[in-house]
């Protein structure tokens, strides 16, 4: 760790050195989903759950929409993982390989036999820090100067995980949603298309306002790193807030970028919120819901720009968990309603968003009914 502490353990992944920001998650299940979540790009992930790897890693199965069933992207996104007790023998009907084999195949180092509780105490007390993972002789000789510390928040991580070209799913959906891909999770796309939407995934810096008339709604996805590195997206959203009168919804990074476009600033949290059990208070109805979260930044919401107000608030630390416009159909949340794995308490937000999109479309275009053409069969004569 850059703070000076050294932890020794046993390697069970790729025998390669790596460096990044050390963060921890308290999630009990879902390590394949967490490790493939683009929001963990550039980070060394510490699991507080002691036993990791006991159900192995599933295969690359796809659902009816062409999305991977068990992974949030097509590769491991984190730089490395740290666990207390790696299960060398796995057992699950979907598993095709061990966690160690999976990490080695993707070139991701992994260490077990570490006191992860001690690491978490350090991170909670001092805040997230930078770290390195070294394997073999370099680790044995404590040759930690071989590679430098790397701060991923100095890079535009959003550009690294975003799609390079537009991609569409469920082309025959009744409404069209443009997804600004800042590192979108597969289950977010699944949550949209399974509700009947046609989804077009767009690059993070795509000027969607040039074709905004083609979409009934805009969705701004989750993503990794420092939101101030994605100012092109903020600029495009800011234009949309003034001229796009259709629904906009954001999740996680989408909440930060929408807030910045509205006029709010962001701050880095001391150690972030990464868990499946974070309570968020709905400021509209007073209900408290358990949410899944994975973010290291939050909006500064002490003073709101005209027309905006708080949507959700973190009950644990009081940080912002969402914003909503008072009159326009714009809103976003910092947590993950699609949670996989994790609680599904706020899954209804997708229903509300798409119901709003459909309602606004009916106002614009009215109800359209398909009336089949009447076919007259004349008597054939020879």
Automatic annotation (TrEMBL):
One Pfam family from the record: GATase
Nucleotide-binding as UniProt keyword: yes
GO MF: ATP binding; carbamoyl-phosphate synthase (glutamine-hydrolyzing) activity
Any single GO BP term: glutamine metabolic process
Keywords assigned: ATP-binding, Glutamine amidotransferase, Ligase, Nucleotide-binding
Domain called Carbamoyl-phosphate synthase small subunit N-terminal: residue spans: 1-134
Coiled-coil stretches: none
Entries under Gene3D superfamilies matching the protein: 3.40.50.880, Carbamoyl-phosphate synthase small subunit, N-terminal domain
Pathway: Amino-acid biosynthesis; L-arginine biosynthesis; carbamoyl phosphate from bicarbonate: step 1/1
Family per similarity comment: Belongs to the CarA family.
Known partners and oligomeric status: Heterodimer composed of 2 chains; the small (or glutamine) chain promotes the hydrolysis of glutamine to ammonia, which is used by the large (or ammonia) chain to synthesize carbamoyl phosphate.
Protein name as annotated: Carbamoyl phosphate synthase arginine-specific small chain
Organism, as annotated: Glomus cerebriforme
